[in-house]
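Side project, low priority. Logging it here so it doesn't get lost.
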Amino acid sequence: RRMYRVSRIQRADVLPHHFDRPEDFNLAGAWSDRKADFAAAIPKYPVEVRVSPTGRRLLVLLQEGAPPLPLPHDVPVDDDGWARLDLTFERPESAARLLLQLGGDIEVVAPPELRGIMTEAASALSETYLPQHA
């Protein structure tokens, strides 16, 4: 069975073909199963971060991976007021792109691979703004 989003249909023509839907077909159940299969197929890339009090207000900039806002009051906070959060993204590259929006108000704790990507991006940005580039 194939399903298409109505918003993707640009044109429809009535054809002489005929189709009889099986009597035991349940559209709501089929749609629910399809949504569950789709969600299960999305890659999951878990990330642990520390985020500053200012950064917590900026979490709305994240699309994927964003925790439900406002954050619960029981989020662990260290002595500097930084909260630890577990986020989930689809892949390392999209995680880095989104997290870089928060600048110094977020720190990737894990995984090491993403810390490396963030370090490289921050170094490249720093290099761009050195006086010789002005």
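Brief comment: Helices lie at 27-41, 53-58, 92-99, 112-128.
Revisit when time allows.
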